[in-house]
Amino acid sequence: MAADDKDLAPLRARIDSIDQQLLELLAARAEAAQAVGKIKHDVNAPVFRPERERQVIDGLIAKNKSPLAADGITYIWREIMSACRALEAPVRVAYLGPAGTFSEQAAFAQFGQSISKVPCSSIDEVFRAVDAGAADFGVAPVENSSEGAISRTLDLLLDTDLKITGEVALVIKHHLLTKSGTLDGVTRVMAHPQALAQCQRWLSSNVPKLDHQAMSSNGEAAKLASQDATVAAIAGDSAQQQYGLQAVQSQIQDDPHNRTRFVIVSHGSCQPSGNDQTSVILSVNNKPGAVHQLLAPMAKHGVSMNRLESRPARRGTWEYFFYIDMDGHANDPKVAAALSELQAEAAFFKNLGSYPRSH
User: Fold this and answer.
1) Distance in angstroms (rounded) separating the CA atoms of residues 337 and 123
2) 333-345 vs 290-300: helix axis angle to the nearest 10?
3) Residues 119 and 264 reside in one and the same domain
4) Which domain holds residue 312?
5) Which residues contact 88 (CB under 8 A, 6 or more apart)?
6) Res 346: pLDDT
7) Considering the domain boundaries, does residue 10 fall inside one?
8) Of 137, 262, 321, 322, which is the active-site residue?
9) Is the peptide bond before 98 cis (omega within 30 degrees of 0)?
10) Which residues partner with 259 through β-bridges?
11) For residue 181, what is the domain's CATH number?
12) Are 180 and 67 in the same domain?
């Protein structure tokens, strides 16, 4: 036995012993989760409670005195809770597919890997799947740090009865991918329109002769690139691994801090988690100072506004809907007071829900 193996042997034995203890504890947790699931089934309560899972993870991070980073704690316990939740009932999650998209990554970041996946061909289909009961939750991109709001998602939030019950913010790293890892024989670059826009400067400078073709998703582009040597796809790590592609160039996004925010939509609602956000849609009467008067209740009650986005009302007139994210839960007294005054002042008011903020 080599000297280093001799030194490692007792440590490996200790790790094996700890792993056995962890397995026994996980089995006990799984049994407790099954008991919880039975009670939830009897009273028809939802299997997934995002505010409860957020409280569990935040509490563990606050108590953590180990070398593990907060992100590590989050990832480990999300997967533990996901696997235990699946013992109660598989959570069906709709997202923009196919496999390998950033929407799928956002779904895993929110729900863990132990879900029943419902990949969809469009954001509209994601909302339809949840609205019709074919999925319990939907994941949809709503905002990119460099390209701004995702208009279709905003329109669907307005036009459907679904509520926001969570959000996920992902760092987006785009790679130029092909079957061979070279551009030999490549004539086209395919990607979702947002990805093409987020890489426009790099593409213009480095591959100006390649045609750009918009696809329904980066995952679909990567799938085609795996089948056609004339296609280069813009996609992330997950799609690269999923379809066995090679990187011609990694991280070609124009903004090195590129992030996309996704919303989780469902028919449900969330109780306060302690770190929440409330989203509403408003419109105002066409009169001087209307927008200022509309926003005044938040300042009056000390409620911070995190985001303000406007969209044309699409009625043939110069009217707009305003999408507002504010700190706090609708059950918080200050937020409740502000919402009450906003609703009284607005020509149109829709509460999209209160939900835990992303880390």
Assistant:
1) 34
2) 160
3) yes
4) 272-356
5) 33, 34, 36, 37, 40, 41, 47
6) 87
7) no
8) 262
9) yes
10) 171
11) 3.40.190.10
12) no
Domain count, the chain: 3
User: For position 285, what pLDDT does the model report?
Assistant: 73
Predicted TM-score (pTM) of this structure? 0.86
Strands 211-214 and 276-283, sheet pairing? unpaired
- Who wins on pLDDT, 3 or 98? 98
The yes-or-no answer on residue 262 being catalytic is yes
Q: Which distant-in-sequence residues (6+ apart) come within 8 Å of 212 by Cβ? A: 188, 189, 190, 191, 196, 203
Give the distance, in angstroms, between the CA of residue 230 and the centroid of all CA atoms in the same chain.
Answer: 32
Residues 65 and 163 in one domain: yes
Query: Does 124 score more than 60 pLDDT?
Result: yes
Question: Is 308 contained in some domain?
Answer: yes
User: For residue 28, what are its two tokens?
Assistant: 């006990």
Overall size of the chain counted in residues:
359
CA atoms within 13 A on the CB side of 315: 8
264 and 131 in a common domain:
yes
- Do 147 and 264 sit in the same domain of this protein? yes
Amino acid making up residue 314: R
**Beta strand extents in the chain (DSSP E only):** 92-96, 116-120, 137-144, 148-149, 163-171, 175-178, 188-191, 211-214, 231-235, 246-249, 259-266, 276-283, 305-312, 320-327, 348-356
Q: What is the CATH number of the domain that holds 322?
A: 3.30.70.260
For 348, other C-beta atoms within 10 Å of its C-beta total: 15
Q: Which of 101, 165, 260, 278 is catalytic?
A: 260
Task: Identify which of 328, 306, 275, 270 has the alpha carbon closest to the alpha carbon of residue 57.
Answer: 275
Structure tokens at 149: 């709001």
pLDDT of residue 317: 59
Rounded CA-CA distance 280/284 in Å is 13
294 token code pair: 């509309």
Buried b (16+ CB within 10 A) or exposed e, 318-337: eebbbbbbbbbbbebeebeb
Active site residue 349: no
Residues 87 and 182 in one domain: no
User: Are residues 183 and 82 part of one domain?
Assistant: no
